[in-house]
Amino acid sequence: MKKKVVLSGTRSTGSLHLGNYFGAVENWLNLQNKYDCYFFIADWHSLTTGYEDTDNYIANIKEVVMDLYASGLDSDKCNIFLQSKNQDHAELHLLLSMITPLSWLERCPTYKDQLSQLAEKDIRTYGFLGYPCLMAADILIYRAEGVPVGEDQLAHLEITREIARRFNYMYGEVFPEPKALLTKAKVLPGLDGRKMSKSYDNTILLKEEDDVLRAKIMSMVTDPARIRKTDPGHPEICSVYAFHKVFNQAEVASICESCKKGEIGCVACKKNLYGKVSEFLRPIQERRREIAGKPKLMKEILEKGNANAKIKTDETMTMVRKAMKVNWE
């Protein structure tokens, strides 16, 4: 039986962190065994908010490739490719932009949220406003039937579905409406209790050196009301406890009880967590060192993925041009 096509991507803003891993990559590892998967590095998308500084543009792409390989993605099971290496993405984005109402883009919740969150950046640009249209092109060009998303991303996917419906209504059936593959990702806060994000400088990278990892974990925000070790704690508001729920499930119940009773101090709790996170990252970092020493392997992974992606997108663009009657011979 032919496998269903699944599409997902990650922006190339540098090394991946634990939030990226549990928010997306962990799920990709499972999906690659079940579907015909296309996982792309969205380097054009990274320009929507990072167009002013491109000094590390190529280096950031390499960091993501190394992290995806190190995490366990297998180029024999899935296609790992670079968005900008396939110009079909740009062509379909252009064609879809011609039929996408401006109001659809302006109502995108992330657009308004990012304008607020990144107020220090000048992102009131045509490219940033239109990124949902580029995202739709990324998905529809593979005629993807499923897109792994969390509930907070459903609005993004719905715009893609609306664009597909509008295109099919105007020109004939070309695109399936991609369905959400809802995933219950493990949620990790940042070191300061906020969402883990490079913008907040509160991340733990997959490549983190051991001494840096230890220092970061020992600096994590805990219960601010707890002054002494014997004070009763409130683990439900503690970032360290949130990490224990992911990395230390065997002990999490006893840690919770001991914290509430004031029987364990924050320092001891952090040291315990450091050991668990270090153990988790060790095999990832070993694979990362492997590919870091083999630049040809990185090139081969992308070339293989790019070639497979191009086969799929060529088929789609032939269908699109014919449906729109813009296929000049």
Envelope shape: elongated
CATH architecture of the largest domain: 3-Layer(aba) Sandwich
Low-confidence spans: pLDDT under 50, at least 5 residues? Answer: none
* Helix content bin: 40-55%
| Global mean pLDDT | 93
The strand order across the widest sheet is 1-2-3
- Give the CATH superfamily of the largest domain: HUPs
- Reading off the top of the CATH hierarchy, the class of the largest domain is best stated as Alpha Beta
* CATH topology name of the largest domain: Rossmann fold
Q: Classify the beta-strand content into a percent band.
A: 5-15%
Distance between the ends: 36 Å
Helix-strand pattern: EHEHHEHHHHHEHEHHHHH
> Whole-number radius of gyration?
22 Å
Q: What does the main sheet amount to?
A: 3 strands, parallel
Helix/strand-derived category reads mainly alpha
Helical segment count: 14
How many structural domains are formed by the residues? 2
The overall strand count is 5
Topology of this protein?
Elements: E1 5-11, H1 18-31, E2 36-42, H2 43-50, H3 57-71, E3 79-82, H4 88-97, H5 102-106, H6 109-117, H7 126-129, H8 131-140, E4 146-149, H9 154-171, E5 179-182, H10 210-218, H11 239-247, H12 252-260, H13 266-292, H14 295-324
Parallel strand pairs: 1-2, 2-3, 4-5
Written description of the protein model:
The protein has 329 residues and is mainly alpha-helical. It folds into 2 domains: 5-188 and 295-324, HUPs (Rossmann fold, 3-Layer(aba) Sandwich), CATH 3.40.50; 208-289, Orthogonal Bundle (Tyrosyl-Transfer RNA Synthetase). Helix content is 54%, strand content 8%. The strands form 2 sheets. A 3-stranded parallel beta sheet has the order 1-2-3. Helix 1 (18-31) links the parallel strand 1 (5-11) and strand 2 (36-42). Helix 4 packs across helix 8 (131-140) and helix 11 (239-247) packs across helix 13. The longest helix has 30 residues, at 295-324. The protein is elongated, with a radius of gyration of 22 Å.
